[in-house]
Amino acid sequence: MIVIIGASGTIGRALLKRLVNFGVPVRALSRDPEKVFMQIGDLDPSLIEIVSADATDPESLRRAFTGASQLFLAMSNSPRQIELETSIIHIATEVGIEHIVKISSPVFDRNAPVAVAGWHHEIERILFESGIKHTVLRPYAFMQNLLRFAPTIIAQDVFYGSMDDIACNFIDCRDIADVAAETLTNSRVTGKVYTLTGSEVFSYPQIASKLSVLLGRSIRYVNMDSQVLRRNLIEHEHMPPWLVNHIVEIQAMSVALPEKPMDTVKHLLGREPRTLDDFLCEYVDNFR
Hints:
Blueprint: E1 2-5, H1 10-21, E2 26-30, H2 33-39, E3 48-52, H3 58-65, E4 70-73, H4 81-95, E5 99-103, H5 115-130, E6 133-139, E7 141-142, H6 150-156, E8 158-161, E9 168-171, H7 173-185, E10 193-196, E11 201-202, H8 204-215, E12 220-223, H9 226-235, H10 241-256, H11 264-269, H12 276-282
Parallel strand pairs: 1-2, 1-4, 2-3, 4-5, 5-6, 6-10, 7-9, 8-12
Antiparallel strand pairs: 9-11
């Protein structure tokens, strides 16, 4: 039995589908089981056990982990990341989970500090010291996060950032899920750290050009000073300060540390990762 923490998240949903299509029994954990139930569609219900559990409730986790052999750990980033994931790791170890696959951060660099990357770096250390077998996946920017720009693209034909014309890595969350499924079902590739990217790097101006062609109208990328972007995210998108800091920090990191694609996805899955062009074509209606 494989337990999925984050079953209603973007990666968790795709992983759930992938494992069930492999015929693998899955226990999907959520604070809102109904939400998971609504998303399983025509998947074989005999292979899916939906369980109510909360990362802040250790007893609910102990019940949910009992009888399982593997755990997929993908939590939404939050200021309580270290506390909650550390608790999960300790409980998993106590109840006999044999292998944890964790979604982490792609890079931790003291010269370009990103607080969330530091949180994941610390959790990785705790995971290593726990002695439990583990596989760490370090994906770069999710293509799905580009959907965050949809409101201003729809209303103003523009989106904002602070990365100039720096090209950076993107990866489709479904490829992350496919890699996770491979590490959960193929013992030959477990126990390692994998950095995950797509096959190409792109800048925001290039993405604006691609959207312009797809939408048949001019889409612009407007570069902002990082402090102006910070105020914009707080005042207009009403983001919590920690998340604003994260967005500004990762964009600064992308500028400071040039990114390049890696072939990890192709090596593990035997195919090329999904392309940004295919992703934008698939989701173009979200930007209309």
